[in-house]
Request: fold
Amino acid sequence: MELANRTYHHGGLREALVEAGVALARTGGPSAVVLREAGRQVGVSHNAAYRHFRDREDLLAAVAAGCMEHLGRLMIERAAEVELPDPRDAAWARLEAIGRAYVDFALTEHGWFRTAFSGAVAHTAGPAEARPGPEAADPEDAGPDAADPDPYAQLALRLDELVEVGALPAERRAGAQYAAWSAVHGLSALLVDGPLRQLPEGERQTAVASVLGAVARGL
Reply:
């Protein structure tokens, strides 16, 4: 749906172009994120779009950040749903919850997942507010982690929580995020674009449980 006949002030056009790009990415992946089309979606000229982004790569980098934020907020939501009385059980459950959220995001939002990890590099530094995403969870409901929707930060917080409650020895915390992220991202990529994409639903769930279990045992 085009957003024509709008007037933009104080950086509003840049934000609108990123928002349009995120919408394009959702259905078409990174290849669908094109400056000309984003400008058409918001009802501005090609030249107007170039005042905010040097080229397509510039826009794609901003859109990738928006897609990554969608992923991070899903991780926050899933972690906030965990309610267990034992702090250790809760910490492990939250780690598993964000891992499952990551895989679910990849499986249900192929376009956003591919775009988030497209590797685009920005030429210009845009304001944080230009990265659109779903509304942040209420801090009263989601806890202090809701302040940072970066997926890497969410993983680090969950691992830190394991140390804080005594579920993970402090000496084993260093570098744990690399192994955990690599395992979950690798599985997600295999399920979306790799040889595991044809797995039946039951086998897919077995694969997810197996990888998340291996991560927990490795920690």
Notes: Confidence is low (pLDDT under 50) at residues 1-5, 126-146. The radius of gyration is 19 Å. The CA atoms of residues 20 and 38 lie 5 Å apart.
